[in-house]
Design a protein that fits this description.
Layout: E1 4-8, H1 14-25, H2 44-52, E2 56-61, E3 64-74, E4 77-85, H3 94-108, E5 113-119, H4 126-131, E6 135-136, H5 144-156, E7 163-169
Parallel strand pairs: 4-5
Antiparallel strand pairs: 1-2, 2-3, 3-4, 5-7, 6-7
Length: 176
């Protein structure tokens, strides 16, 4: 049986990561949430920039990339920009392992929290993150970066009324 591993992404991964993102996005098809965005992927230019900064991780089964996570830094917080796993590899712990590594990285870099935006009612979104210790941030807790992210999502046509910002305060681990 092939081993699962996580490694830093490199520029040669760009095509495969877009393929994983499109496949993972199909899980949302017909939900009326992102149908107009299903063919789009994370900006290759921005992704290449974050790969150079060592902020993109790939989950592999053997030598095959099956998932990835993209994280950025917004002042003293890590921000989970994107996490995708091929549907046929879902539920096998790839997403959880990727998030664990991001948490460790953020703690090593002395960041305060790991934040993300996600759909509140989709089972593999907010309920998944809640199980990992994330909490929903109320609007009064948003900083300028989250207000900007909200505006960007709104401009993309995401149904922002069905999305939440969540945060995991660092110092907590998934085993707490």
């Amino acid at each position: 049986m092939d081993e699962y591993s996580i490694r830093l992404a490199n520029r040669s991964d760009l095509f495969r990561l877009a393929k994983i993102e499109r496949a993972a996005g199909k899980r949302f098809s017909g939900m009326g949430l992102i149908d107009h965005l299903l063919g789009q992927t994370f900006s290759p230019t921005k992704l290449a920039e974050l790969i150079e900064k060592r902020q993109v991780l790939v989950s592999c089964k053997g030598s095959i990339s099956v998932g990835f996570v993209v994280v950025s830094v917004l002042e003293k917080n890590a921000y989970l920009e994107e996490i995708d796993v091929l549907p046929e590899y879902g539920g096998q712990g790839h997403g959880t392992r990727l998030i664990q590594i991001v948490i460790e990285w953020a703690m090593l870099n002395e960041l305060n929290a790991l934040r993300l935006a996600t759909f509140s009612e989709v089972p593999w979104n907010a309920p998944f993150y809640k199980k990992l210790g994330f909490r929903v941030l109320e609007m009064h807790e948003w900083d300028d970066h989250l207000h900007k992210k909200y505006q960007e999502e709104k401009e993309l046509g995401l149904p922002v009324d069905k999305r939440v910002f969540m945060q995991l305060d660092l110092g907590k681990s998934l085993s707490d």
